[in-house]
Amino acid sequence: MIEFPHTMWISRHTIRFAFNEVISQENFRIVQKFNSFLKKMLRSNLIESVASYHTITAYVKDKIDLIFLQEQWLFMQITSQVDEGTNRQLQIPVCYDEEFALDMYRVMDYTGLSFEDIKKMHMSKSYSVYLIGFLPGFPYLGELDSKLFVPRLKKPRNFVSASSVGIGGLQTGIYPLDSPGGWNIIGKTPFNLFDIHRKDIFIFSLGDQVQFYEITKLEFLEIKSKGV
Predict the structure, then answer these.
(1) CATH no. for residue 15?
(2) Which residue has the higher pLDDT, 214 or 65?
(3) What total of structural domains would you count in the chain?
């Protein structure tokens, strides 16, 4: 049975729900489950809910009855009525060419793994979009194979080009825009993660499952020319 999260009113119309402060698939599943529950219970009173690794911040029109919410959370778990939502499965191409893999040799030195091993491990798992932030549409994806654990750069770069794929700690991510950054860059995708002219401005949504696959530099340029 999942306990009701710790609650804190941040303002008259903003409340935060917090579970255990742990980054894990299990914790993320709980957060998704509770987020679906909130949307179902609060309906039109809910302006927006913003989920993170272990918290959900809800923006509401009117104050909510927490005791009633707790009772419903317990009841819906007992009767198995809590919906976890449907997550998309996304395939994202990555070119690991040395031109794009700016920190590949740093990762090799730190982990003791070969170039090919790093690529295979990075592509071997399906990652959850745990969080979107830092930049518009930047996905925090987890969790990497523990053998790929590499700390972020001590001195961040002043410039990382958009669509660069990086790793840091036990997470991997993709830069949606040109920006400074301290992740270890190991490749690049030809996809544009952020485009205000598309119907769906961002490629990723919270809870999506992401799988990477390798493409050549020629394939990268061909896809890039199509403006995907």
Answers:
(1) 3.30.1360.40
(2) 214
(3) 2
Distances 63 to 48, 55, 69, 201, 204 between C-alpha atoms, Å: 14, 19, 12, 32, 31
- Whether 210 is in a domain gets the answer yes
Burial class (CB in 10 A: 0-12, 13-18, 19+), 46: middle
Same domain, 213 and 100: yes
The tokens describing 170, both together, are 């036990």
Q: How far are the Cα atoms of 65, 66, 85, 139 from residue 125, in angstroms, in the given order?
A: 41, 39, 21, 16
**Residue 221 and residue 169 share a domain:** yes
Whether 63 has a pLDDT exceeding 70, the answer reads: yes
- pLDDT tens by residue, 103-138: 999 999 999 999 999 999 999 999 999 888 888 889
pLDDT tens-place string over residues 208-221 = 899 999 999 999 99
Query: Does residue 15 share a domain with residue 128?
Result: no
In terms of domains, do 69 and 113 share one? no
- Predicted structure pTM score: 0.76
